[in-house]
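One-letter codes give the sequence; each number marks local geometry. A record appears below:


***
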Amino acid sequence: MKASAKTQIIGQSRATQFLRELIQTLAASSSTALVTGESGTGKELVAQALHAQGPRAGGPFVPINCGAIPRELIESELFGHRKGAFTGAVADRLGRFELAHGGTLFLDEIGDLPMDMQVKLLRVLQERCLLPVGGSREVTVDVRVVAATHKNLESEVAAGRFREDLYYRINVLPITTTALRERPDDIAALLQFYAQKHTLPGNHPLKFAPDTLQMLQAYAWPGNVRELSNLVDRFSTLFPSQTLQVHTVPACMMPSGLAALQAQRLSQMPTPAPQPSLFAATSAPQHALAPQEALAAAKPHWTAATSDDAESPWADNDPLSHLFADSDNAAPVPRAAFAPMPLSASNDEMSSVEEVILLAQGIQTLPPDGISLKQHLIDIERNLIEQALSRTQGNVSQTAKLLQLQRTTLIEKINKYELRGAA
């Protein structure tokens, strides 16, 4: 494996700048380096950068995860074996040390190496020669070793789980990677990089609104850069070419810690200022107006619902709740409630407004036995979706854009109303 000459350590924080400078200095040496840090902080990226910027850049870069190889196979993986050394050894096989000859061997998670293998590894690092499994002749190797672990090896030595002599042998050039939560200044650059990397064909890179960026910078990132990369990959698939607002992503699509931050920020968003009541008393009743004129004259105003106000008529699962949303990604805004009827409103005013609303909803006269308003609203929504699907010839993405809905929300409604034939 060749390490790319374009290996990048992304970010402009002081910790990242120091890391880049340290790598540039240590790359010129062939001494063993030990990279420590939490999982997902880019330890292998550091090893690749040491190789790519050093004199061995023309040689191979060979990685091996010591914790992923079964105990009975790790010796063969590292040192190779000869034909007939054990059952199944039908031919000679080179180990990772020989494959990395003239280049760099990256021993990831060296803290998980079994104790008996630690002894053999120590000898190879000291003598620069190895004995393949089943072999009778030692093989000389010219390899730079870069080891890495997320464990505290000093604590492992004190607990008797890691050899002290091996620790001092590999800890010649120590490098520590910083957790992402300690360098929030790097998050914007990392988001941009991985948004470009995970962009789906035919789409533009995902963008992040300022409020979303602030929320992501406040998140602790227990999985570090690996978690960030996976999250951007998920968002790029769910919301291609979009600009993510705080309210865009459902909580179920985020880590629990990030979802908690989202809920906190949404609760702190300001609510719209109260507007005049829909049924405020007017100087004269509007009996003579045509329905269209009356509808314009009686344009409803909304007042934000609070815990002390009347309960909102729009339930959480109401099929038309999405209509009370802003135009950006059809994200929900605080639900509104009709202002209570002033005691001064006359019966004529109430009848006029009610008539306008019924005309606007396509009901000429309210039936004597009444009507199920919720069912009527469901019928309206179903009809609008059918019209939109017909206009776009069944294209779900264009229909979602036409109705200002998320594509996933529209698909749920298509399934709910059994409109698959129209899509």
User: Anything to note?
Assistant: The chain is about 40% helix and 10% strand. The radius of gyration is 33 Å. Residues 129 and 270 are 69 Å apart (CA to CA).
